[in-house]
Amino acid sequence: MKTEIKGTTMPVLEIGLEPNDRIVAEPGEFSWMTQAVQMRTTTYTAGARGIWGAIGRAFSGGGLFMTEYSAPAGGGVIAFAAKLPGAILQVDVPAGHSYLIHRHGFLCGTEGLQLATAFQRSLGAGVFGGDGFLLQRLTGPCSAWIELGGEVVTYDLAPGELLQVHPGHIGMFQDSVSFDVTVMRGFANALFGGDGLFIARLTGPGRVWLQTLTVPNLAHALAPYLTPNTVQNVESATAGGIAGAVLRDMFGSNR
Q: What CA–CA distance (Å, rounded) separates 43 from 20?
């Protein structure tokens, strides 16, 4: 398998598949592929060995269905483009180890990966678009590619070293890092500071990857330039896209 990340602001991951290679991703994530690549949409992958395992993966932010890409004849190329300005990172996960990533961070990975819910907490409507806060646990053995928004800043925390982060800026961290979400200290800070009610606490040892661009911040920056009709059209298109994706996942697994 040969991989290459092309571009800077809106990167794309290109993977050259050999006969025994297999890539796993959520349905509809690929950007382009050559004729030699074959697709198989199934629930029995990414750590799920039955419908309940697939449902658990879906609650972790992954899909109920996953798509496997292979090139039995060899010489196939599959590409995955970033959905937001940012970066695509490769992580190699040994057996028995894992990474915790933000709910939309998983792009694709090799056969053997497992996705599950690692942390979930409701933080109140409006704090994170009403969705609360959720982390996925990515377990190996596998190689995987993670999409982070904006610039990526890394910290190597020493044992006991504490880093306090706005939850939306958490991109990924090693499983050796201790993690929790707590209420912002100080009544005035929480209500009038403009930074939200909650803050994440990461304690070393281990490496932490932070992202400078979050979807809520991007939406907030664009909101003054969107008319009500534009918002309604975007919501309608999004709803249609979600419905179409669900129907494709349910009835189009033989494509």
A: 21
Contact of 76 with 19, CB cutoff 8 Å: no
Q: Residue 24 in contact with residue 108, Cβ under 8 Å?
A: yes
Domain boundaries, the chain: 2-227
Q: What is the dihedral of CA 116, 57, 117, 99, to 10 degrees?
A: 40
Secondary structure of residue 195 in the 3-state scheme: coil
Query: What is the C-alpha separation between 103 and 82, in angstroms, rounded?
Result: 15
Read off the pLDDT of residues 17-60 as tens digits, 9 standing for 90 and up: 999 899 999 888 899 999 999 999 887 655 545 554 555 555 55
Closest to 167 measured CA to CA, from 142, 199, 193, 137: 199
Q: Which architecture does CATH list for 2-227? A: 4-Layer Sandwich (3.60)
What is the length of the chain? 255
Cα three-residue angle 57-83-31, rounded to 5 degrees: 85
pLDDT in tens, 180-226: 988 765 444 444 444 457 889 999 999 999 999 987 778 778 888 87
- The span from the CA of 12 to the CA of 81, in Å, is 4
Q: Which residues, in sequence order, are bridge partners of residue 87? A: 148
Is 173 within 8 Å of 206 (Cβ atoms)?
yes
DSSP state, 122?
Answer: -
Is the dihedral angle over the CA atoms 54, 60, 63, 64 positive or is it negative? positive
